[in-house]
Amino acid sequence: MTTDNEARVLDEWSHRLAQALQILDLEVDQELLLDLARKSADSVIHAAAPVTTFLVGYAAGLDAGTGSAGSKESSSASVAKAAGIAFQLCEDGHDGGPASKGWADTAQ
After folding, report:
1. How far apart are the first and last CA of the chain?
2. Which end of the chain is more exposed for a tag (fewer CB within 10 A), N or C?
């Protein structure tokens, strides 16, 4: 958990960064991302935290569509879907779970 001051600073930073990246009207579920980063760092290694959150964001962006094609609702649903997969993988630890077999048993 973050303190009120940390939450405020993170909120301001997220807003500034989103504006600089020209991502309009982005609402970031900071608690979800912080929980996911914490869980992946604890389950895998510390460096898994930023990589996991990046991959979840990337997958969510692909799933929701780009630019004006994606709505806030579809973006939120895509983040939740991708985060759910990542949380499940964290439960399996760094060397287990469905991804341990690569693409086997997937629709890919």
Report:
1. 37
2. C
What CA–CA distance (Å, rounded) separates 49 from 5? 22
Task: Give pTM, 2 decimals.
Answer: 0.70
pLDDT in tens, 55-70: 998 888 888 775 544 5
Give me the numbers of helices (H) and strands (E) for the chain, helices first please: 4, 0
Write down how long the chain is. 108
pLDDT tens string 50-105: 999 999 988 888 887 755 445 667 777 888 888 888 888 888 766 665 555 554 55
What count of Cα atoms within 13 Å lies in the side-chain half-sphere of residue 101? Answer: 7
